[in-house]
Amino acid sequence: MAKKALYELAEEHPELNITEQEITAAPVAAWREGIRMIPALKCNGHILSGILLNKQAILNFLLKTGLKA
Fold it and tell me: Per its UniProt record, what InterPro entries does this chain match (predicted)?
């Protein structure tokens, strides 16, 4: 759900640069980055995570962390 919403937002905001990281392949690196649960989004040092991240929650997070409206 979060991935779909994030990519929908990327279509609306082409300035978004999305990088996916498979945390099961590098759990220690993810932990060092501050990822404690999945899904998680990291933007400009801020992290949003939660079981159900909807499009509006992701957009609000991105706007607070530097996305221009």
Answer: Thioredoxin-like_sf
CA-wise closest residue to 62 among 2, 26, 30: 2
pLDDT, tens only, 12-30: 999 988 988 888 899 999 9
User: Measured between alpha carbons, how far is 11 from 22 in angstroms, rounded to an integer?
Assistant: 22
What are the domain boundaries of the chain?
Answer: 2-64
State pTM to two decimals. 0.83
